[in-house]
Amino acid sequence: MQRFDYRDSLCTSHKVNTKLKSEGIVLINNMPCQNESLLNLAKHLGRVASSGIGEQRCNIEDQNIHRIEALESPLIDPFQYPIISTTNLDFELHTDDFCKPTPIDIVLLHCYRPATCGGESLFVDIDSIVTELSLSSLAILSSPSILTPFGWVPVIQKMEHQFIVRYNMYDILKVSTTSGYTYPQMTMHALNEFKQIAVRLCHQVRLASEDCLVLNNKKMLHGRNKFTRSSMRLLKRLRLYSF
Ligand SMILES: [Fe+2]
């Protein structure tokens, strides 16, 4: 994973963009813990998105910056399920905006306070997963076989000779349960194979204060390990559409 220093990052923003496109992840160090840093970095990478902002705004700060921390009571999504990012639970590998017609391109996660125990960030790229996926599962997951609130979508797509991914098992099961749809056995098998490979191949990194993880949401799955609630872990997040 390529690391950049925030103090140089603005003059090397084209390098950050290039790495995001080719490798799907960048770590920026020494980024001062203030909202201005995140907004400053964002303006070199894309346009700020408002996705994930519902009626409950207690975790939202200025210009769509989300506080990612374990709340006393987790926020609830429109399906009446807990929003995992507002808990201290394991957050399985996923891409953001699974339920949206046009998912965002870039996720910025800026660490203010790491957890004292747990809370490591997890990531794995779609190219590695596809390399190990069976041809039958690749065929199923490349077809529009997965239900979202706006219709059927593929998990894996090939665009301009590159694989892109849309995947969130929590959301996939939530949508099927609430809509009363049962997946055929072969689709569940393909999804489970995908998940097992992702878990086996994933890397982890422990973010320190002033680290900012920058993820290409079309190439890289991300997640995090559970952490002790008393550690007061705090990240701030921005989601972007790339230019
Ligand atoms: Fe996420």
How is this structure best described in words?
There is one protein chain. By secondary structure, the protein is an alpha+beta fold. The protein has one domain (2-242): 4-Layer Sandwich (Double-stranded beta-helix). The chain contains seven helices and 15 strands. The protein has helices at residues 6-9, 13-22, 35-42, 126-132, 135-141, 169-179, 185-201; strands spanning 2-5, 25-29, 46-48, 66-68, 91-94, 106-113, 121-125, 146-148, 151-153, 156-159, 162-165, 203-205, 212-216, 220-224, 234-242. The strands form four sheets. Strands 1, 2, 3, 4, 6, 13 and 15 form a seven-stranded mixed β-sheet that branches. Strands 5-14-7-12 form a four-stranded antiparallel β-sheet. It has a two-stranded antiparallel sheet with strand order 8-9. The protein is globular and about 50 Å long. Bound molecules: fe (ii) ion. Residues 94, 96, 222 line the site of fe (ii) ion.
